């Protein structure tokens, strides 16, 4: 998962570390500089600009100060790397600004290695854009049952498979689940969700192909209320946000079943397209959380890095394969560890 991005971040990490290291070596003062001339954190800039210009990195009193110039080229390369990895432009900008702020002008203990300094600032910047994640079992436990979850998204991104996977996951977490076969449009969709549900031992409410999906999902909610089922998972047909009639159908579904959560499903491999589509769905029918499927096939990682920050909604799960257990709750800390290794 995200192997390309991991490699690229590794190179950026090496490059930033090398730039800081080279600047540190080049600026070892011939004669000791006066600590009083240094900018201290939280204080006004040094009064003597000629000294500030001359000294790119100073190691005085066991501290190291990085200047903007030292890392300008490495940060430009990192910016290109992120954009090439399909990280959205505003997210790239936020990451670069945060890494710069995390490195430049701060006094660091020289006891810590340059690499750990770099990794710490990369990790902290990534954690800020990845957001908090979303603990679905905790959400369900703290809400009135049934908790109704409506799944939306474009065609073929893995929505139906995701509904089945989340059903299996929630069953394992101890919740009772009913699935509403709300994709009454695509031939074979009702059978497909039926097969999944049978394998998983989950009840499905279905009507015929071509039936009104709002009616199917209304019945599913009624079933859940009557049977004290914890969670309703509502599948829907894939659609593009540009199809006004299909979007108004989704609007009707929303009015009828009153979902507690609308989950937008797209595929990680779609990169920036997934981010743009999620924003459009959020604008038209709303989205409370995101699932990105096919993360196992995505080496660039751009959508996973960008989507929560761009639309301001948390990433709930990553789909990591075709089996039911191939779904993982999105944990920002774990993703950052995966991208930057266990170092620092
Ligand atoms: N590798 C991989 N494949 C996945 C993942 N999730 C779903 N798929 C596959 O993607 C394909 C499409 O999945 P569906 O669940 O049928 O997609 P859908 O969005 O319901 O399709 P529509 O009903 O047309 O909207 C299937 O072959 C799934 O097995 C995943 O996380 N990783």
From TrEMBL:
Family per record: Belongs to the GTP-binding SRP family. FtsY subfamily.
Cell location: Cell membrane; Cytoplasm
Single GO molecular function: signal recognition particle binding
Key word GTP-binding present: yes
Compositionally biased residues, Low complexity: 20-30
Spans annotated as Disordered: 20-45
Positions that bind GTP: 153-160, 235-239, 293-296
GO CC terms of this entry: cytoplasm; plasma membrane
Catalytic activity: GTP + H2O = GDP + phosphate + H(+)
Function as written in the Swiss-Prot or TrEMBL entry: Involved in targeting and insertion of nascent membrane proteins into the cytoplasmic membrane. Acts as a receptor for the complex formed by the signal recognition particle (SRP) and the ribosome-nascent chain (RNC).
Source organism per UniProt: Methanoregula boonei (strain DSM 21154 / JCM 14090 / 6A8)
NCBIfam families: ftsY
Membrane topology: Peripheral membrane protein
Record keywords: Cell membrane, Cytoplasm, GTP-binding, Hydrolase, Membrane, Nucleotide-binding, Receptor
Main localization, broad class: membrane
PROSITE patterns: SRP54 (PS00300)
Biological process, per Gene Ontology: SRP-dependent cotranslational protein targeting to membrane
Domain SRP54-type proteins GTP-binding: 314-327
E.C. code: 3.6.5.4
Quaternary data: Part of the signal recognition particle protein translocation system, which is composed of SRP and FtsY.
Feature: compositional bias, Basic and acidic residues: 31-44
Name of the protein in its database record: Signal recognition particle receptor FtsY
Coiled-coil blocks: none
Matches recorded under InterPro entries: AAA+_ATPase, P-loop_NTPase, Signal_recog_particl_SRP54_hlx, SR_rcpt_FtsY, SRP/SRP_N, SRP54_GTPase_dom, SRP54_N_sf
């Amino acid at each position: 998962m995200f192997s390309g991005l991991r490699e690229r971040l590794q190179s950026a990490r090496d490059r930033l570390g090398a730039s800081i290291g080279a600047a540190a070596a080049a600026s070892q003062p011939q004669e000791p500089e006066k600590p009083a001339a240094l900018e201290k954190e939280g204080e006004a800039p040094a009064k003597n600009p000629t000294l500030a210009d001359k000294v790119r990195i100073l190691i005085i009193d066991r501290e190291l100060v990085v200047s903007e110039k030292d890392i300008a080229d490495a940060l430009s390369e990192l910016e290109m790397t992120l954009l090439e990895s399909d990280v959205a432009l505003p997210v790239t900008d936020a990451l670069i600004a945060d890494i710069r702020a995390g490195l430049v002008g701060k006094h660091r203990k020289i006891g810590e290695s340059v690499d750990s300094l770099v990794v710490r600032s990369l990790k902290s910047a990534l954690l800020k854009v990845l957001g908090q994640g979303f603990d679905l079992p905790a959400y369900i436990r703290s809400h009135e049952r049934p908790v109704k979850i409506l799944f939306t998204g474009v065609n073929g991104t893995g929505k139906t498979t995701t509904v089945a996977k989340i059903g299996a996951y929630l069953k394992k977490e101890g919740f009772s689940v009913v699935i509403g076969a709300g994709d009454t449009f695509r031939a074979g969709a009702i059978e497909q969700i039926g097969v999944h549900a049978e394998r998983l031992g989950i009840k499905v409410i279905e009507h015929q192909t071509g039936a009104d999906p709002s009616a199917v999902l209304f019945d599913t909610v009624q079933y859940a209320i009557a049977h004290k089922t914890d969670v309703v998972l509502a599948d829907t047909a894939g659609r593009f946000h540009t199809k006004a009639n299909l979007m108004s159908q989704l609007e009707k579904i929303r009015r009828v079943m009153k979902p507690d959560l609308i989950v937008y499903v797209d595929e990680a491999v779609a990169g920036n397209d997934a981010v743009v589509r999620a924003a459009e769905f959020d604008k038209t029918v709303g989205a409370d959380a995101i699932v990105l499927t096919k993360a196992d096939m995505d080496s660039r990682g751009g959508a996973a890095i960008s989507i929560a920050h761009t639309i301001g909604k948390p990433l709930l799960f990553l789909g990591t394969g075709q089996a039911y257990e191939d779904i993982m709750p999105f944990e920002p800390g774990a993703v950052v560890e995966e991208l930057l290794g266990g170092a620092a």
